[in-house]
Specification:
Oligomer: single chain
Strand content: 5-15%
CATH topology of the largest domain: Beta-lactamase
CATH architecture of the largest domain: 3-Layer(aba) Sandwich
Strand order of the largest sheet: 2-1-7-6-5
Number of strands: 7
Distance between the termini: 18 Å
Length: about 300
């Protein structure tokens, strides 16, 4: 751990001027991000913090939220009910693919693609939309150690342009995978993606999973330890869009990315790591983030199957 500060300084300087990739444009509000933002945060299960760059710069969590909503649905419904509605198989298709919903089981492949995340949002317990939203925000707060809020302009932007997600929801309704309250389910999904975090928050959220569900700073339990295995499993196999296989090969730790430029990864029993940089590649992953994680994994032997 003593080598972290010097090495992340080296990585920050090495990649801060890397300008390949582009800002996410299918959600109009995301085009307002500064392409120069760049941050690296590492928080250990002992609560040690190592960070550099724009760690306090706010951005919306986007698809990284799927990890934590899945954990919440596991606690609300249990593993077997979730498996009836949502698979756990990786897919080489884009995260917003419609095609595979019309095959075989009619259920989404996994909770990390949009269809699976929408179905997961439909399983969150609550008497009404307000209670479900407040429960979700409270859950995120246990991971971050502070109250979180929703970026309303991003939420409205997602809602106004989310026609493909609306199509996915209607198709799943046709197959009986979600209830008829489509607008409520989609609003919760758009709201979860619009939760505001920073790079430090993501590292702490990852460290909480690395620490078997207990926030290493606040010592508050965020999720039952028995479900951390499920969460990390789908992160490892499905968390990096249609780059998941190459990520598992090159980096080899459970991770999840978002099109706003965040990547969050979990080194079980050791640390949570996050990188934020808004320039993304064709798969939706942060270009600088990929490079940083590849070098961190190699330098510190983080790959789960690195036996040397």
């Amino acid at each position: 751990m003593s080598d972290f500060p010097e090495f992340i300084q080296f990585l920050y300087e090495k990649y801060r001027n890397l300008d390949s990739g582009k800002l996410a444009c299918y959600i109009p509000e995301l085009t307002k991000a500064n392409p120069n933002w760049f941050a690296i945060s590492i928080i250990t299960t002992e609560g040690e913090v190592f960070e550099i760059g724009d760690n306090q710069e706010n951005f919306t969590i986007q698809s990284i939220s799927k990890v934590f909503i899945y954990g919440m649905a596991l606690e609300d419904c249990g593993r077997e009910i979730l498996l009836e509605k949502i698979g756990v198989e990786p897919t080489g298709d884009p995260f917003n693919s419609v095609i595979r919903l019309d095959e075989n089981s009619k259920r989404p492949d996994n909770p990390m693609v949009n269809a699976g995340a929408i179905a997961t949002a439909g399983l969150i317990a609550g008497r009404d939309p307000t209670e479900r939203l407040n429960r979700m925000l409270d859950m995120f707060g246990r991971y971050t150690g502070r109250k979180v809020f929703i970026d309303v302009p991003v939420f409205m932007s997602e809602r106004a342009t989310g026609h493909r997600n609306r199509a996915l929801a209607n198709l799943m309704l046709n197959f009986g995978m979600i209830g008829s309250n489509i607008d409520e389910i989609l609003d919760l999904y758009f709201q979860q993606c619009s939760v505001v975090v920073n790079c430090y928050d993501l590292a702490l959220m990852a460290a909480t999973l690395a620490n078997r569900g207990i926030n290493p700073i606040t010592r508050e339990r965020a999720v039952k330890s028995g479900y951390v295995r499920d969460i990390l499993s789908v992160m490892y196999t499905c968390g990096m869009y249609n780059y998941a296989g190459e990520w598992a090969y090159r980096v080899g730790i459970p991770a999840k990315s978002g099109v706003s430029g965040g990547i969050m990864a979990v080194v079980p029993d050791r640390a949570g790591i996050a990188v934020f940089s808004p320039l993304i590649d064709r798969c939706g992953n942060s270009v600088r983030g990929l490079r940083v994680f590849e070098e961190l994994s190699d330098r510190f032997k983080l790959h789960l199957f690195d036996l040397g």
